[in-house]
Design brief:
Radius of gyration: 26 Å
Number of strands: 5
Number of helices: 11
Largest sheet: 3 strands, antiparallel
Shape: globular
Strand order of the largest sheet: 3-2-4
Strand content: 5-15%
Oligomer: single chain
Order of helices and strands: HHHHHEHHEEHEHHHE
Helix content: 40-55%
Amino acid sequence: MILQRTLRQQSALRAVSTPLRRRALPQERQLHHVPALTHGQSYREHGIPGVLSAEGYDIAWLQYQKVMVDKLNSLTAGTPDENASTKSLLLKHARAPDMASLFNYASMAHNNHFFFNCLSPKSKSTTMHSALGSQLSQDFSSLETLRLEIIATASAMFGPGFVWLVKITHSNRFRLLTTYLAGSPYPGAHHRRQSVDMTTQSARAFPGLSAEDFARHSTVQNWVGSFGSSAAGVGPGGVGLMPVLCVNTWEHVWLRDWGVGGKKGFLEAWWNMVDWDVVARNADFGPSPKRSLKTN
């Protein structure tokens, strides 16, 4: 009798639970996603030779980048920002204190992608776009000097961040730039922009603002303006530039494979796997024959 009662109870439980198991789960929109790298499949299987193991690559790219985009999806869902690129988001929210979290995740997702996108599974350190090689040699005295400067700068950074090779747009010269944590190299992320210069307006023009809010807004100077070079998104004292290469110095990238004291070894190995074809495209160099250049 007890056995039969137990069987009937289990059958009833199965009858109730079966529809629950078959119920379709709601699909979650994932507008921001981990980008596919050109050599992503090779990196999954073999890592980046001499730089990161497959496990190190998994942590530094697949796992870390997924956290960044998941956070972006959480912060932008249902807003006009849910379809925006990471670069657009970081430029839009760089100077908004209440949007600091969104900026950090967008900037880190962008920077990390930039770093991995400039790498190759095969060493390309001995050939380079001829015009790029010539300009780098001119700006840094030699490619060897550039290599030493990047490695020394990144090694000296006391804390995580990125070292960037940037091209100054008005002179076409190359320089090095460092950013810490989730900082961005783009000049458009370094200043506050306003569509209206509040210092030229009166409270009557903004009836929707309280006197307190108007006073707060009118104390913010329009550093950029709407005319001339300032309209291009460059803050006072800043210069227009485009990033063409970067190295990621965050510990989670290199610690797993290189150990606590292995940062410099990681940087030297990174240089050997830079994809100079990608760097040339980032620097807007057109088609040009390559030539052999000793870079290390």
